[in-house]
Amino acid sequence: MARLPRLTLPGYPHHVIQRGNNRQRIFVDRSDFECMLGLLFEYAQKFGVELHAYVLMDNHFHLLATPTTEQALPLMMQALGRSYVRYFNRRHGRTGTLWEGRYRSTLIESERYLLACMAYIDLNPVRAGMVAQAGDWPWSSYAHYVGLRQDRLLTPHALYWELGNTPFAREAAYAELVQAGISAAQQSALTDATLRGWALGEGDFLAEVQKKSPRRVARSKAGRPVRVPTGLHENG
């Protein structure tokens, strides 16, 4: 079966996953993490992508971002991928590919999934057993949203602003949201939709998105389920 073109629409938040080839490390030390954050800032600004949340893990990363044009996200990810591979190969004396194929992404319904997706991203290191609390991992957006630091990368989504009338109220509400975690059903839905490229939301939202895209945005109820490659579910 032919691979579906990637679903990308301006004005909608997109959950993005990019993994290292063969689950290898893509960040070895602090300099690598900092380089990626610098490139993310540069290319998000250049191509017009609002970044709402992120986490950089040892062998993959997640983004939650809203592109301002149809090509903004693909252009950012292409430039980011190429620039980081050049940096990483030169610094670590290696050659060849770094990524496990093209990045995976899909757009999500804000009202139902955006805050859950932020928590899902910030809890990634906890699910992987790398830290006990989200705040213990320095390479995510969590610290910004709970008032521990200012992160120039981030553009808070309107739904974050609605968490409270003051910075303290918003920070406390988001910390409580992450502490509570997300359900297994939400976690599975966010992972599966992104890996398979189907839009994630309720019927009205999917119908709205379908009107704006020439490709099918949700899997039909009939037919065989799409197989997710081995290893893609591990640690979110």
Automatic annotation (TrEMBL):
Biological process per Gene Ontology, one example term: DNA transposition
Signal peptide: none
InterPro entries documented for this protein: Transposase_17 (IPR002686), Transposase_17_sf (IPR036515)
Domain (Transposase IS200-like): residue spans on this chain: 9-124
SUPFAM superfamilies: Transposase IS200-like
Superkingdom per UniProt: Bacteria
Gene3D superfamilies: Transposase IS200-like
GO molecular function annotation: DNA binding; transposase activity
Residue numbers spanned by region Disordered: 216-236
NCBIfam families according to UniProt: REP_Tyr_transpos
Protein name: Putative transposase
Organism of provenance: Extensimonas vulgaris
Lineage of origin: Bacteria, Pseudomonadati, Pseudomonadota, Betaproteobacteria, Burkholderiales
